[in-house]
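Sequence in, structure out. Go.
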Amino acid sequence: MLKYYTLFFLVTISSSYAQSWSKLNDLPNSILGRDHPFTFALNGHGFMGAGSTIDGLKSDFYKYDPLTDQWTELDSFPGGPRGYSYGFNYKGYGYAGFGISTTAYLKDLWRFDPSTETWMELASCPCEGRGHPAF
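Output:
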């Protein structure tokens, strides 16, 4: 058993040393970064929306293509500006919801269709709104 642990440990160490990092393109219009956006991945692309910057809460929405290292701004997230929301993918769709607006904790849920790049509002949670929920 000790032999297997040692082998695993050595493979892990050698794999860690072989990795390297390369700088890719920054998110447009984001000189000081973005805090607490929602994110999800679909069909080989990354998606990021909302969150906050030094200018306040945002509702913008972006698609990242890792093959071309390019960000594309899509139509804004229709759920409005927010931070501390969540995102996930399920069965070919992206989902986003909850979070904090400038006036309230939110409890909504939205579905993103990557084939049409459109959002559809789904039923809200029959609960109190929340910031930073997790699934």
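Check: Residues 32 and 53 are 7 Å apart (CA to CA). Helices lie at 2-18.
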